[in-house]
Amino acid sequence: MHIIEAIVLGLVQGLTEFLPISSSAHIRVVGEFLPSAADPGATFTAISQIGTELAVLVYFWAKIVTIIKRWALSLVGKVPRNDPDARMGWLVIVASIPIGILGFTLQDYIRDVFRNLWLVAVVLIVFGIILGVADRWGARRREMSDVTYPHGISIGVAQALALVPGVSRSGATTTAARALGYQRTTAAEFSFLMAIPAVFGSGLYELKHGLEEGDVGPYGWSGTIIATIVAFLVGWVVVAYLMRYLKTGTFMPFVIYRILLGATIMILLAMEVLTPFGTA
């Protein structure tokens, strides 16, 4: 039964990681309604996200290899530091600093306080509305070549907010990018690229924590590994779909979904079907 639950959570992770609806919030809530009725935990969530981030590596492989190569060559003067790909390498590094610092210093909150379902419900709604406003009224002219270091830092700060389940890493970063005037596909692509160090860093840190503590959550090592593999396979399909969708579509369907999900969680909490830190 635990393996089946792990597969379900892997599907949820793969389906929601790249959409601006918060995969960690979905993992947190769905876990409460599975037979085990347990919070999968921060360790399970972070490790399973490695699977979806591997999907990003596969989808953007050629671009990522070019960025790393040009960035490395810029360090030894063989490529100008203002080369677009070399500059993108630096932008990803700079944008990853905020979440790296806060993710390390706020571990106790990440494992406990931030997983309060009342908080999850509120940020789903609030940040959903902010995403809708930014997407509706944000300018649409800037492209990847227009990303500046101040913009990279700003989007990086937004990414750090995703330490709270419900905010959504992709949602926060695309919201910030849209507010700064970037096209939807540009906002999504930069969001995916800048997430690579953060997600792998978080996942490997939690993997180390799990090995040291001998505990990765209610599904054990086998369930966690299976969920990660499922998340990779599903995430690969989803990221390809989303990049195509954003060429013509808007973020409004996701905004509506976030508000409805947040409201539903609040109703279930008020009815005591759920409690802030577990099933009633």
Structural class: mainly alpha
Distance between the termini: 21 Å
Strand tally is 2
- The H-and-E topology, N to C, reads as HHHHHHHHHHHHEE
Helix content: over 70%
Average pLDDT figure: 93
Individual helix count: 12
What's the overall geometry? globular
How much β-strand is present in the residues? Answer: under 5%
Spatial extent as radius of gyration: 18 Å
* Low-pLDDT sequence parts: none
Largest sheet: 2 strands, antiparallel
Name the strands of the widest sheet in spatial order.
1-2
Summarize the structure.
By secondary structure, this protein is mostly helical. The protein has helices at about 1-15, 25-35, 40-60, 60-75, 85-105, 105-110, 115-135, 150-160, 170-180, 185-215, 220-245, 250-270, and strands spanning about 275, 280. Helix 5 (about 85-105) runs parallel beside helix 8 (about 150-160), helix 8 (about 150-160) runs antiparallel to helix 9 and helix 9 (about 170-180) packs antiparallel against helix 10.
